[in-house]
Write a structure and sequence with these properties.
The protein is α+β, with helices and mostly antiparallel strands. It has one domain. The chain is built from three helices and five strands; from the N terminus they run ααβαββββ. It is globular. About 10% of the residues are buried.
């Protein structure tokens, strides 16, 4: 809760609700370098299961070498994707060309989806970094 500014009451409430869900729904937490973990998770395609790789604002904060390796791992796994073992890559990131200024903050982040085996890619929405001020792509 220390990461949420006290004057953002709606954010505090959302976090409290998320914590409550976590108390009721068990989850496994792995501690590992993202690239090592992702490589292990994508090593064997799972027939009949759509695998989704998701990340949020990692490009701005993650270690570049690990992030580059994760990109390579996703590209490798994409080549193995079939209709029986589809792969989706969903990311919430600032576009590389983004200009960070208050005037552009509302459209700063893009939620982009890539699906394989087709290789279909589309920006779904733009928003601010908190997921507000959403503009759906056409």
């Amino acid at each position: 809760m220390s990461y949420v500014w006290a004057d953002l009451a709606p954010h505090v409430q959302i976090l409290r609700e998320a914590i409550e869900v976590c108390r009721r729904v068990p989850a496994t937490i792995d501690q590992a370098d993202g690239a090592e973990w992702l490589e292990e998770q994508l090593a064997v395609p799972r027939p009949g299961v759509a695998t989704v790789v998701f990340h949020s604002l990692m490009r701005a904060t993650g270690p570049p070498a690990s992030l580059d390796r994760m990109t390579s791992i996703v590209e490798w796994a994409a080549r193995l994707a079939t209709r029986e073992t589809p792969l989706a890559y969903l990311r919430f990131e600032a576009p590389e060309h983004a200009v960070v200024s208050p005037a552009e903050a509302r459209g700063l982040v893009e939620t982009t989806l890539t699906l394989w085996p087709e290789g279909w890619e589309r920006v779904l929405v733009t928003s601010d970094v908190n997921g507000r001020h959403v503009t759906w792509a056409e």
